[in-house]
Amino acid sequence: MREKGLLIVLSGPSGVGKGTVRKEIFARPHTAFEYSISMTTRKPREGEVNGVDYFFKTREEFEGLIKQDKLLEYAEFVGNYYGTPVDYVRETLEAGKDVFLEIEVQGARQVREKFPEGLFIFLAPPSLSELQSRIVTRGTETAEVIQRRMTAAKEEIEMMDLYDYVVENDTVAAACDRIGAIVIAEHCRRERVSARYKKMLEEN
Amino acid sequence: MREKGLLIVLSGPSGVGKGTVRKEIFARPHTAFEYSISMTTRKPREGEVNGVDYFFKTREEFEGLIKQDKLLEYAEFVGNYYGTPVDYVRETLEAGKDVFLEIEVQGARQVREKFPEGLFIFLAPPSLSELQSRIVTRGTETAEVIQRRMTAAKEEIEMMDLYDYVVENDTVAAACDRIGAIVIAEHCRRERVSARYKKMLEEN
């Protein structure tokens, strides 16, 4: 009677600090997630190791995997492909381990379609909740600047609609604590626990 | 822009250790919940203080409150009423504080009707998940004993259906950690956070 793992997807606007939060999570001693290594067609930088930092592939190999539907999500940035191999994710989840992805928002959208039951966490800039006090307290901003900020904030808030949780990245440590709490809580969700108990009874 | 507090309801089968878990939660230095003190018609025991351990009321007063719909939930045990005053709960939630109730399952059912948005946590006996290994490893049990246990387990699992989360009381400390994580996670739920952000934008 083994419970399937959780697919944990951390995403958010570019520049919000997803990579820093992910590194801190995996630097913590009690983290029990498996990190899904991305695949890319870009050249390895000095010190980067195949299978550790990325799986490095040729453009032909990558496009072959796209055709075979072997990528959970992928995107092209500045002429290079980046993506998440789906087999590793499925096998690790089946083995009862939680898998952690840190990806861009477009990628998260693709993952949601394939794994609607995943746990989607949006990392939000603290600027969002600071916005109000900044607008109120600073009298130096022009109406145009304020308007631009409001529009940007609106776009970010709309982006959130895809997600289950929003974690503010006020400090890296606090954001990591919240993400850890969310994963613990999700493992306690009644649907999940009671399905496990029911299965146990049926098997006896 | 103040966020409403969460109503946290801890319940579970009698004898599971709800009171012990609740005491440990409130003994922890970082607990920021308000504990809702129950009301009762039973006589104070030695050392019990009105307004600390319980609000002690006469039978007439209690029945008056029932008629005025001033109780969030109530029940009668061995000739005495026990209940949760609703005004304190509403006012504390409105003030943005989380309120914690530790009540019997019948009470939890009444609260769910009045506060469907509450956070309902079922404290489960570890015997439930130990059941399988016990059945498999011990050859000494009669079929009748096993059957009785399975029936009891089924009833407890059905009880869970009302709840959002199930926390196993394997150790008091672990159960309290999980409850703490659940509350943190709930405060990060997207609906809750994005509603707050949206309200902030509208107010500017």
Automatic annotation (TrEMBL), chains A, B:
Top EC category: transferase
UniProt keywords, alphabetically: ATP-binding, Cytoplasm, Kinase, Nucleotide-binding, Transferase
Q: Where in the cell is it found?
A: Cytoplasm
* EC identifiers of the protein: 2.7.4.8
Record InterPro entries: GK/Ca_channel_bsu (IPR008145), Guanylate_kin-like_dom (IPR008144), Guanylate_kinase (IPR017665), Guanylate_kinase_CS (IPR020590), P-loop_NTPase (IPR027417)
Q: Which SMART domains match?
A: GuKc (SM00072)
Catalysed reaction(s)?
GMP + ATP = GDP + ADP
Tell me where in this chain the Guanylate kinase-like domain is found: 5-184
The cross-references to Gene3D superfamilies, in alphabetical order and at most eight, read: Guanylate Kinase phosphate binding domain, P-loop containing nucleotide triphosphate hydrolases
A GO cellular component annotation here is:
cytosol
HAMAP family reported for this sequence: Guanylate_kinase (MF_00328)
User: What family does the entry list?
Assistant: Belongs to the guanylate kinase family.
The UniProt function text for this chain reads: Essential for recycling GMP and indirectly, cGMP.
Q: What is this protein called?
A: Guanylate kinase
